[in-house]
Design goal:
Blueprint: H1 2-16, E1 27-29, E2 35-38, E3 43-45, E4 48-50, E5 61-67, E6 70-76, E7 79-81, H2 90-94, E8 100-102, E9 111-119, E10 122-133, E11 137-141, E12 144-146, E13 151-160, E14 165-171, E15 174-179, E16 183-187, E17 191-200, E18 211-217, E19 224-228, E20 231-233, E21 237-243, E22 250-259, E23 265-270, E24 273-274, E25 278-283, E26 289-297, E27 307-314, E28 317-326, H3 337-350, E29 357-358, E30 362-363, E31 367-368, E32 372-381, E33 387-395, E34 398-403, E35 423-431, E36 439-448, H4 451-454, E37 458-465, E38 468-476, E39 479-480, E40 486-488, E41 497-498, E42 503-511, E43 518-525, E44 528-532, E45 540-547, E46 550-557, E47 567-573, E48 579-584, E49 590-591, H5 600-605
Parallel strand pairs: 2-10, 12-20, 31-39, 41-49
Antiparallel strand pairs: 1-4, 3-8, 5-6, 5-9, 6-7, 9-10, 11-13, 13-17, 14-15, 14-18, 16-17, 18-19, 21-22, 22-26, 23-24, 23-27, 25-26, 27-28, 29-32, 30-32, 32-36, 33-34, 33-37, 35-36, 37-38, 40-42, 42-46, 43-44, 43-47, 45-46, 47-48
Length: about 625
Amino acid sequence: MASVLLLVLSVLSVLMLPETFVYAQLQVSTPPSPIVAPLGGTATLPCAFTLGVAPVDPAQVHVVWKNEGTKVLSYLGEVSALRPGAQLSEEGLAQGDATLTLPNVSGSDSGRYTCNVRLASEQLAQSLTLVVRDNRQIWVEGTIVVANQSSELHCGAGNLSSPDVEIEWMRNGQVLSTSAPHVVENKYDQGFIVESSYCLTPTMNDSWAHYSCQVMQKSFPHPLKKTFQLTLGARPDIFFLLTGKGQKNSSLICLVSSFYPDELSVTLMRDGQVLTDNARKWVNPNGTFSLVVTYPFNMTVNDDNAEFTCTVSHPTIPKGATERLRFLVDPYVPKVFWMILSAGLLLAFVTPTLCKHVTDIAVCKDWTEGSTAILKCSISGRYPKSITAVWLVRQGEKELEIKERGSLHPVGDYRELQEQDSYTCWNVLKSTWVCNLRQSLSSVLCFQVQKERHDRAEFICRFMRGNRILGEKHYFGSVLDNYGFYSVSEICVPEECNEGERLTLTCCMQGNVPREIRVMWERCQGEERAPISKEQEGTYHITENKSAGRYSTFLTFYPSKMDSGASFSCSFSENEGRVLAERSSTPLKVTEPKKNTWSKTYQDWGFRAFDEPGITEI
């Protein structure tokens, strides 16, 4: 009976105790997707779990990470990483943290990851997405170069995780140079920025080569690479001038010719303020471009000492080029009688002596077929309102007279500047003395070169006052053969040469001379052509001189009577045998050497005397 009573009391005591049972459910959480990581960096994939009790015994936790169904890491008492470098913190597991860490991620690490957690008798999984992006950037500048001129290529890279890099420059897969970057800059929003440069002197063959700039990080397995090709350009010629008489209906003209490529901008400014202008561009026969910019205005006293500029920006001119004009405008001042009388006397007696200086005809550059030729000639003296400039072009018996088209017609008439078989002439007036007592009148002739019309033609610039010629200058045109970017000179021989005296013939190729070239001299007698080789040292001697942009060859020999009437030709050819250019001399005229009429005796003494019986005194 007592034992039964004790059992009842124990049961009642248990029923009266407070409740100590905890009913909890496993929870697993991951952040919103996607998780973005930089290529080559470290990716962190958070995963937290809880069962309502902390801390958790890691020995009772089983964690499995998978990427698209492929196991990456598992934990069952210890970490087992199937992806190299994958990490999971055991200390974090005790706090409910099953975060996965992946160092040095690549594109194959992208995908949908699953965090599977099993604790006690419960199991739960959550997913998130990892995206691996390459935010690095690479760029190359200065790929437009001028042949046979020193150029500099620039390569840069940004968004780098480390400045410890090397930059390689390659040509057709062959390494040209390897060096550390010249400029290293750290920006918080763009990472590290590095830059490097490479200097070279390009040739025609470099336009077909493939260049590369490669940025390699020592702690990063994926290099950055940029492949490009050079563009051979032509540097522009700039002419900035004022047309008209400098007063009404005048125009500022900025002529930019013979440039390539056509990425060019021209800005006209007056004392730093941009002027609204009219521009026209055209393609030259040789493939280059030209552009003319005009700005019409009437010059007033307000333009005195004003500076006008023409700024040209082109890839072949890294810092740009600027041409400047500054005008001195004399204001109108009423003159009293004695000033008018003094000015009249000055004009009548002094000024005519000032109109005697005429400059030589200036030529902008060598002439080639299809290029733009500009001739300029000036006269200085009295205000040339009554002075006119006339250009004459003579070739054989033909003579063409060219005059200025006038300064009162609209600017649009300059569209004929580059048209075939046309000439354009305009005058430029500048004041050099006070009160316009001395002026400079310049006449400019512009035309498109044609070898048949302009080679060996005579150009005459004649300044006239009424029917009286004040002065004139002559220039003989010479049109070089245009073989792309180089030209070949003619072979010049004297009108007569003495038998047995040393004679040297010269032929030069200048411009973009090919790297591999062969030269052959030939002796032509009638229809027979005999090659001359360097081995013929006994009779002929051939020498060559090659420098940057110029290749010269010389043929030296002692002519004989057999060489009279013979001509010599020089040809330049490539290694494949294609003849690039050939020049021939005029026939030689070999004469007998003149006999020495000096007395042998007086030659030895140093006196000049002749062996003639009628001369007895020295």
